[in-house]
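Problem statement: downstream parser choked on a complex file, so we are re-checking the raw output for the calcium ion run. The parser issue turned out to be on our end (a line-ending mismatch), but while we're here, posting the original submission so the record is complete.
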Amino acid sequence: MGEAAIASGPPSDKAASPFRLTRYFSWVSLGLIALAALALGYFAQSLTLKVVSHMAERRNEAMTAVFTNVLGQDFAPITAPGLQLNAEQLRVLAQSLGLHTKTAALMQGSEIVKVKLYNRQGLTLYSSDPKQIGELKDDNPGIQSALRGAAQSMLTHRDKFDAFEGQRADIDLLASYLPFRRQGEIVGVIELYQDVSGFVKRRDALLRRLVLIGLGTLLLLYALQLLLVRRAQGIIHCQEARLQKANSELDRRVHERTEELALAKARLEHLAQHDPLTGLPNRLLYIDHLRRQINRAERNLEQLAVLYIDLDRFKEINDTLGHPVGDELLIEVGRRLSAIVRGSDILARLGGDEFACVLSCGDAALEAPLVAQKLIEALLTPMNLHANELQISASIGISLFPGDGRSADELSQAADTAMYEAKRAGRNRYHFYQPEMTTSAQDRAAMEKLLRRSLQAGELDLHFQMKMGIPAADLFAEPAPYSGAGPALRPCGAEALARWHSAELGQVPPTRFIALAEESGFINELGAWVLNKACKQLKAWRDAGLQVPHVSVNLSVRQLERNDIVQVVSQALADAQLPAECLELEITESVIMHAENAIQALLALNKLGVRLSVDDFGTGYSSLAYLKLLPIQTLKIDRSFVTGIGAHLGDEAIIQAVIGMARSLGLRTVAEGVETPEQLAFLLRQGCDQIQGYLFSYPRAAAEFAAEYAALCASPVLLQAEAEPSSLGAAANRA
Ligand code: C2E
Ligand code: CA
Ligand code: CA
């Protein structure tokens, strides 16, 4: 049954129709019981038949013996050998011998209902039924067997039978053929018909009982087994249900586990594709996204914009305030930038303080600068991190697809180049990529190589620009012997400015190579060289009798960040055998503002005795409170304000305020980039202490500087009480 189901249907059918033990058992055991009952019936029947036949046979044998003994003599005449009589004659002979009466007497009270006697040829010599006398039964197997000495019996049922006492109905008979002997010799065959109806009836009743008992027993057995089987079926069902439950539990757990694994996989994928600090996509995901966007834009003939965003001076913050603050800052930057980038675009952190954004809009060229401006502005609001109020800015480079590149690498490279251009142009701005930039980037790489070689190649030199001041004594002095015309501007120092004349590139402006040296780190070597050279030069002038009070040297932020700056400076002074007061260090205001540990370096330098000056003052938004903390002696008013004198009232107001503030803090002021007598007059009116600019002197090589310096010392620029710009201009021109 089960196999048929498996063979005929799909496997699911098997599950749908489970093996029904009870039903299976019922049919099979019923079949078996029927078979057993049949076999039992058959066996009982044949057994009882045998018993009945045997008993009847024994009785027939006994009766034959009786007949032979009692009627042997009476039968002698008809069994005489050689006797040839027909049926009629035999009947007459039997009549005359009174055989009928004698056999009737013998059969009286017995179960024998017929007697027949055959001779060896099978001829019926005698029968209790006279009609049968003379019949020839030579082919009867019973007679044949008896003639060979073996009795044979046959049980038959007759509906009608001509018995000795008359006709009988519905009778069971046992016919026995037995040898008829005389003096031991078989001379014929006796056939006895015995009525065994009683036997058979008893046998049938016995048989019925036997069958009933057998069937009953089998049925009882069946019932018992059925009970057992049903119980077993129950257990199987129970186990099945349990198995099913266990299976579904297992299924559920497997499902759960699969889901957990899927989650873990997703988490891993997320980790692999995202920056752990900001949670933003990382470079991998950015490149992947950009590639897909390029494919899409190519198909739909759309534009793309890639923005490279780099924080300005992040390294300084990180180094001075520590990494925890740096990390916080990056997180906040990520948050602010994300708020501006649309959901369909991607903002990624590429590493360090570098972020990238891919804009995939219809008109990226128009949208990109708007987004870039928003990103820049978003960062300008100061951040409060770990009790520090920080202001950060960013430089952004923009490249466009397909104009600036057709691959992710090309576009990224272009955006990166544009970003560097934005930095070089003064930071806190965005720049579109232009093909020339790549060449300038290549130029930069080449130039950097040349710059590194410039020191050994002797291509670097120092120029000096004079500073003019009114000595305090002059202000109150009687007319000086050499002029007799009141206070005068005299040379009071020099600023050392680096110059590079490259054999390959020609004269390279310091703004270019200093920035390059700062980017590449070469500035430390260069700065140390400048310090040494400037100190030695000052010493040489002094030794030659030119009393230059001090030399100013520009210091880069990179130099300040190094721990060895004090060592480098004191070494330079020692090598030149100069006292520390001879050296002034100029540090750009924005550098001091951004480099926290600069204060430590400045304190140490100040302790050394070196004077410190804040260069480009007014551009870095220094707070007054902050200035008070710094160990500085000089403020150098930025040239941009000086240029505005006579043109912008705002610039004049700033200069006025700066000089006033410096006075109240006890600081000296220097104005740089002074080109016109008007500027000079204004500055002097405001009380500016020192003047530097083309009005009096251009940066010059050491020898020329010395000559100019000596000349100006000999004839300083005289100032009238009411200094006329024109007369000052004349004085300057004379200088
Ligand atoms: P800076 O420190 O502000 O130097 C003053 C710059 O103004 C010099 O430019 C000087 O030649 C120029 N200058 C002076 N007077 C006038 C004037 O009347 N009008 C105009 N238009 N310009 C005037 P220079 O020599 O090209 O140097 C540019 C910058 O390069 C310097 O600005 C300084 O920041 C940097 N630099 C030069 N030499 C060194 C150095 O040895 N070390 C470092 N760290 N930076 C240096
Ligand atoms: Ca300077
Ligand atoms: Ca300056």
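For whoever reads this later: The two ends are 126 Å apart (CA to CA).
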